[in-house]
Structures
1.
Amino acid sequence: MPTMWLSDTQKIGVAFCSGGGFFLIGGVMLFFDRAMLAMGNILFLIGLTIIIGPQKTLLFFARKQKAKGTAAFFLGLLLILMRWPLIGFCVELYGITVLFGDFFGTIASFARNAPVVGPYIGMLIDRIPGLSRRQNSELPV
């Protein structure tokens, strides 16, 4: 089995982030269950902090160009905790899009290389505007 480039601590962080993602998906599937959405957010933030470290996490959320996304993400989390899960999730989704929008291309290319479902995911990604790998095809270089 090939070794991963992640340390053992970072692998635990990936597990926390994955658990957070599963809780978020479960919270949406259970008609925006407030407890599951809140647990998913907390696990995601803990996992992100473990993966990149507390200092880099604070720097990531405190960047000036990401201020809108950070405010929306934490406002959405606050709305979920204040018993407004649907509105909170929508606000939080906007914040996640602003915060992690730069990574969507990387995630799409990673999903494209998945062993069995990669070509099908690639066809879906090509239909989504902005995620296609051919978006800069008209550049001369």
2.
Amino acid sequence: MKVLYPTSHDIPSLPDSHLSLKIARHSRCTVCPTCPGLHPPTGWRVFSDIPDGNESDDDDEPPPTRYLDRCECGHSVGAHGADQMSVGHEEFARRGRVAVRLDELLEDSGRLLDFDYSDEDIDSLRKQMQLPEPQSPASSLSDELGALGASWRHGPPPPRTAADIVSQCLRHQRSTLYPPRPPF
């Protein structure tokens, strides 16, 4: 099967689907522990979406019309860290810039469509494609309690919101304006 790969490096003109594909190529699969990044399944041939005239088409198969959309590991582009809804807009944009830079380096060496190629510069830059480790709610709660130190054991924690501060002030005000009376 023949598929296309986006060769443009102009981020503003790249559709999100093409930027996602570039991100996925350089990002580990979030499902498979051994998949280093999106790469075409065995037997698939990848072509530039901007023909340069150097590609030989020596078979009877029609030219490619769709883009690479899944990995040899069987997972989608989204499973390779390129789901904008999961990573957020800012992280998606950051990862997109790194992926485009990686593709520029590959293109400079004439290896843009070689999904197995890597070198020291590529490996170093790919470290920036790692997703931040998600923090579980249990560990974030224990981190918060640990940050409070021993003080939380000796009284209520300090107020954290404006409503808590107002409530604490009102309680303090009531206790100073109207001290408790001794019983008759």
